[in-house]
Structures are given as structure tokens and as C-alpha cells.
Design goal:
By secondary structure, this protein is α+β, with helices and mostly antiparallel strands. The protein has a single domain, classed as NADH Oxidase, CATH 3.40.109.10. The protein contains nine helices and four strands; from the N terminus they run H-H-E-H-H-H-E-H-E-H-H-E-H. Strands 1-2-4-3 form a four-stranded antiparallel β-sheet, with helices on both faces. Helix 2 crosses helix 6. The longest helix is centred in the N-terminal third of the chain and has 21 residues. The two termini are 25 Å apart. Keywords: Flavoprotein, FMN, Oxidoreductase. It holds the Pfam family Nitroreductase. It comes from Marinibacterium profundimaris. GO terms for molecular function: oxidoreductase activity. This is Nitroreductase.
């Protein structure tokens, strides 16, 4: 095992989806370091399709307030203060989860609910926790990730590699992250709020900042599949 592998493995192991942040900002030069490193991610034909809108300071709070107003307005229209907002992503969301994918999704959800004190059957509690997505979990920054529409799913796949690289580079610099597909559900609002042209797809958001280690939502870790569950060897 090389020292480089050991370091990379430790960064992977330490990274997790942070759901509670301290309010202090990340210095701009640190954000630029993260993006520069993430930009080394591979992409088809070296297209590097990823583009970011990054909020800082008061703009994060303005966006947070506007996003929450958008979502709670949808919930009110649906007749419930805690109703989940309707999804309107630029790329279709999964049509379903089955088998081990459903099991992992459920396990992760129940770990989160247990950590924050939401019991089974508490639909109002689970809805309130879901709405934390649109408060950006209190993060001081959010990056909106977009890709050219003409590159379709393969541009999105390339951007997935960039998102992974972003979260790992951030972890290596002591910055916590959470990639949020929930923000992509509000794609029409994001296009309007940030003047994102129609020829770019909103893929996800990455909320980031310095972790609040005392926040209960940060007190659990998800499991990972074994290598034998991933590789189908052919010899």
C-alpha cells in the first residue's frame, strides 16, 4: 500500500453527507482550491462540462429564504404545511428503487430519522427533516452544478465525477459537503433565480461549509457494499 493510496482511502472514509453546518464562511481561496482540484476529474473527450454557481455571504441567505418560500408555497398549495414539494427536475429522477438499492435507501433514511429523533410513522417529522434540504442544512455556501443540455446523460455522468471529486477535495481541506438532488427538483425556480439558460441542465446542488460536529444529523454513517457485491469476475 502506497502512502498516496493510504491518504486517499482515509479521505474517502472520512467523507460523509453533512446535514448540520456552522455558519462561518469558507475562505474564497479554499473554495477555489476545491474547484481547481475537482476540475481534474475525467470527462468524455475532455469536455469538462461542469459549471458552478457558488453563493457566499448574504447571497446564500437570500437564496435560502427564496427557496424556502418557493417550497413552502408549493406545500401550502398542496394543502399541508409539511407536504413534500412537487419534483420538476431537468433530468428524470429514478422511476423506482428495488432490491438492494431500496434496502440501502431505507436504511439510510431510518438512520437519519433515528439520529434526529423522528420515529416510525411520524410523517410530519420526516417531512420537516426533508424540508431541511431547502434550508441547505444551514450551510454558508451552495454550489449549483449545471451541464450543457446537448451533452445529455453523458455530460451528467461526467459531472457526477466532478461532484465526487469536489466532495473529496473539500474533505481533504477540512470542508464538509452534501450533494443534494433535492435542489434539482426545483429546476424551474433555479433557472429563474440564477438566470440559468435553458441550454444548461441543473443537475444538483452541493451545500458546503464547516461541519457542526454536535448536530445530531451528523452522528451516523452509512454502510458500503462489499467488493464481492460489486464485482462480477470473468476469467
Amino acid at each position: 500500500m502506497t502512502p498516496e493510496y493510504q491518504t486517499l482511502s482515509e479521505v474517502f472514509a472520512a467523507r460523509h453527507s453533512c446535514r448540520g453546518f456552522r455558519p462561518g464562511p469558507v475562505p474564497r481561496e479554499v473554495i477555489e482550491q476545491i474547484v481547481a482540484t475537482a476540475g481534474r476529474a475525467p470527462s468524455w473527450c475532455n469536455a469538462q462540462p461542469w459549471q458552478l454557481i457558488v453563493t457566499t455571504g448574504a447571497e446564500t441567505d437570500r437564496f435560502r429564504a427564496a427557496l424556502q418560500a418557493q417550497v413552502t408555497g408549493e406545500a401550502a398549495t398542496a394543502g399541508s404545511a409539511t407536504a413534500a414539494p412537487g419534483a420538476a427536475p431537468d433530468l428524470p429522477f429514478p422511476t423506482g428503487y428495488s432490491g438492494p438499492y431500496l434496502d440501502r435507501r431505507r436504511t439510510c433514511g431510518w438512520q437519519l430519522y433515528e439520529a434526529v429523533g423522528v420515529g416510525k410513522g411520524d410523517r410530519a417529522g420526516s417531512a420537516r427533516q426533508m424540508l431541511e434540504n431547502f434550508r441547505l442544512f444551514g450551510a454558508p455556501h451552495v454550489a449549483i452544478v449545471t451541464s450543457p443540455a446537448e451533452l445529455g446523460p453523458y455530460g451528467a455522468m461526467d459531472c457526477g465525477g466532478f461532484v465526487t471529486a469536489f466532495t473529496l477535495a473539500a474533505q481533504a481541506l477540512g470542508v464538509a459537503t452534501i450533494a443534494q438532488a433535492a435542489l434539482a427538483a426545483q429546476a424551474p425556480f433555479l433557472h429563474s433565480y440564477f438566470s440559468i439558460p435553458d441550454d444548461r441542465l441543473v443537475l444538483c446542488g452541493i451545500s458546503f461549509g464547516y461541519e457542526d460536529p454536535d448536530h445530531p444529523a451528523n452522528g451516523f454513517r452509512t454502510a458500503r457494499a462489499e467488493v464481492a457485491d460489486i464485482i462480477d469476475w470473468k476469467a
